[in-house]
Batch of 2 targets.
Target 1
Amino acid sequence: MRIEYHRTLIADAVRNAAFHAALKAVIKPGETTVADIGAGTGLIGLMASKLGAKDVYLYETAEVAGVAAKVMKANRARNCHLIPCHSTEMQDPPLVDVVVSETLGNFALEEGIVATLADARARFLKPNGILIPGGVTQIVAPVRSPRIHGELNVWDRVGYGLDLAIARTMSLNNIYVRSFSSDELIEPAGQVWDTVDLGRDAKSARKGEVRWKLMNSETVYGFACWWTADLVPGISLSTAPDAPRTHWEQLYFPLLSPIAAKSGETITLSLRSKTSEDAGTHVAWTAGHLGAKDKQLARQALDLDKGFLP
């Protein structure tokens, strides 16, 4: 186990403040019981303890659970109880008033938060209990900047009379963690392609389709994707380009070749994803270029599975 990843979480003041505010909004000192699923070093569970939670149950299956145990002891958190297993493996878990889980990735669902919180709502929560976060919205926007496209197409600039097109195609069938500025995007606010009601929606397979009718001629090089998590009413956390900076970034979905579209034409994008603890994360995206009367001018289909070496 390397502690460095957990240091980046602890250093994320925006993330920490949002979860602290959400817990403060729902904890009644001396009464509320809390389960922290995916507790890591124990920060969020300890926040709940400091806010007056009656009991806090911290679930962590990785080696970092050993660190969490020592951190809890150092903080004399006698109302915190470490359970070193994945929450879905826990038999007859103690029922709680609040379940909190910061198991979000750059791709929001990559750490299995959908299945985890569906199980938690069914088996961990008391009637009228609260899940934090309660929902996740996934958002996407076309990228007009050639910056990352140029970076990924280095295969074409190697020279020496070599053709590396096969490797370039594999490289483009991948998703990249990058940061964007709003001026690099067409429609910087983006469009929603998926909304998850956490706890109630147990579908690990997600899909959505969006379209943009262009007001001006534009060249689209790929797509930027981000998310907003609704922690509790009035408190949210976002990885949008214009949101306060966190340790998360946006994702870049490449195109095989840029789409040069004219004013009045339409860009479409369909996205499909599936995540599971056993099989990992699978994502596919298909972009379309539509002309007048929605006549299809071009279509590009990419799939994360094609980006792996055979």
Note: Residues 61 and 86 are 5 Å apart (CA to CA).
Target 2
Amino acid sequence: MSKSKLGLPFEYQEYPEYFDAFSINENTDAKNKVIESLLKKHKATTVLDLTCGTGSQVFSLAKRGYQCIGADFSPDLLKMARKNAKKEKIAVKFIDGDMRTLKVGAFDAAITIDNAVGHLTKAGFEKAMRNIHSNLKEGGIYIFDILNLQAMTDKVVANLAYHMNEQFNDTKVHVMQCHTVDQNSGLITAYNMCMLQKNADKPTQINHKHSGQIYTAKQLQEMLNRNGFETVAQYGMDGKKFVKNKTLSILTVAKALR
């Protein structure tokens, strides 16, 4: 059993101003379109994003006519989201809150995207499921993604490593990241070496690791079933057919039962 503990990426906790440099990339628009297509398929018009960060999914959906509320437990990220909403003149409400406890209302759909549930323990995720259920109308849907434990072969884990070199406002961001996976505990651990250089100032070096909980598709189905949901479908993040030992991320659609 791995002794690693769950945690959050360093940019979320210590450097939220660089959150978008890590979370928004060339795949973001395509991912948001897949989520929107699933909402449309299930005739959802009101959406609660319980892990909204700086608002990537919320803004995308709001521009497409959905009534959205964004929530997160990071005050710094919500401050940025509110600033962006004002700048882009998008009427979206953002709320401080934890997906395990926040009560907002009754929505057609709830979402938690970008492996957000992986920051919770298994018990914490089940608690979040029950709370999300309480924020949905009867028959409402919950859409979330998480890395697929069953697909994590040694080759796949090695290929998760990446090197990022980006200009973000006045700062150069250089990151090297690699991973390990404990198949027994279902923990994936990310190891980061990061250099942040603002203009020509002395760079800041960060060495950081954090772990997240990942699941097989079957484990997710069983957890959802225990907590008031029926699994409707599971896909890859591209919206294509899910293959249990090959698809890297599981995009799950579950229906709230009464």
Note: Helices lie at 10-13, 19-23, 28-41, 56-63, 75-88, 122-134, 154-159, 217-226.
